[in-house]
Design goal:
This protein is of the alpha+beta class. It contains seven helices and twelve strands.
Length: about 290
């Protein structure tokens, strides 16, 4: 018999979302409650394994009594709160944010962004080509993953995953200030000269594809990357006795990348270099 731990009971809070009464456990964010209620609130910088950073501002909603729009990803639900997700003010704000982001960086590999741009009738091209924040080639200085900062929206998720929230390696940080701010390793050196341990946990949380597997990058460049043709199989890593879960992404009978379930109590989506990148022996047919 499987025993499921119930955890510490949490009081249910009652409030309204778009005029409908909802209940959510104490400590839930507005975004948590919206998703539980089936409300589609877009977000880019929110990650289910990281503390919210409020960086992208795509998830803003109106809360009765609040002077400004509030980020749903970090604002905690409160009893009696009145939340409105689809007001003209909130939709206009999301439209502008999407326009600014899509005009300044490449969002071509960001999931759902094309749908949101269409839904909110955003027109990123109205700012012209001079709006691009960066214009640099992808950084390919190792055989495991690629850094394409033309796709970076400065959500800081990679910094948090590499820092005190998970890996505690602190190889990644923000360099520069203002419009010159960018993600970099110490002294902006090649990744091979940094403190990086190649766990790939920064790739796991990156929402835009600015950080990607070298295998995925090469296949996209060759036009062979096809997520619709991929299967996912979750198994247990065979390298040590920790018991990390691996999700193998397979296309044309080849493993093309490895992730880990975010709800797994052992890994929470995180892996080491062996678990995430050491899969070649499985398909070595020589």
């Amino acid at each position: 018999m499987t025993v499921i731990p119930l955890g510490v009971p949490r009081r249910l809070l009652e409030f309204t979302i778009d005029g409908e009464s909802v209940r959510a456990p104490e400590g839930s964010t507005i975004l948590d409650a919206c998703r539980a209620a089936g409300k589609d609130v877009p977000t880019l910088c929110q990650g289910d394994t990281l503390t919210p950073k409020n960086a992208c501002r795509v998830c803003v909603v109106e809360v009765e009594g609040s002077r400004t729009l509030v980020p749903a990803c970090s604002r905690k639900a409160e009893p009696g709160m009145e939340v409105r997700t689809g007001t003209e003010r909130a939709r206009h704000s999301r439209k502008i944010v999407l326009e600014l982001l899509a005009s300044s960086v490449d969002l071509s590999t960001t999931p759902q962004v094309a749908e949101w741009i269409k839904e909110y009738e955003a027109k990123p091209d109205r700012f012209g080509p001079d709006a691009a924040r960066l214009n640099e080639e992808p950084k390919i200085d190792n055989d495991l993953y690629v850094r394409d900062y033309d796709k970076c929206i400065l959500c800081y998720k990679c910094v948090d995953a590499c820092g005190d929230q998970w890996q505690n390696t602190f190889a990644i940080s923000v360099a520069g200030r203002g419009f010159d701010a960018r993600i970099a390793v110490e002294h902006d050196a090649p990744l091979t000269d940094s403190a990086c341990v190649y766990c790939g946990n920064c790739i796991e949380v990156c929402p835009t594809g600015a950080l990607s597997f070298k295998s995925e990058f090469d296949m996209r460049a060759a036009g062979t990357w096809d997520e619709s043709a991929q299967t996912e199989t979750t198994t247990v890593c065979a390298y040590c006795g920790v018991g990390c879960n691996l999700t193998l992404h397979v296309q044309d009978n080849e493993i093309v990348k490895v992730t880990s379930p975010h709800d797994n109590p052992v890994t929470h989506g995180n892996l080491c270099i062996k678990g995430r990148f050491g899969y070649q022996h499985v398909q070595n047919r020589d």
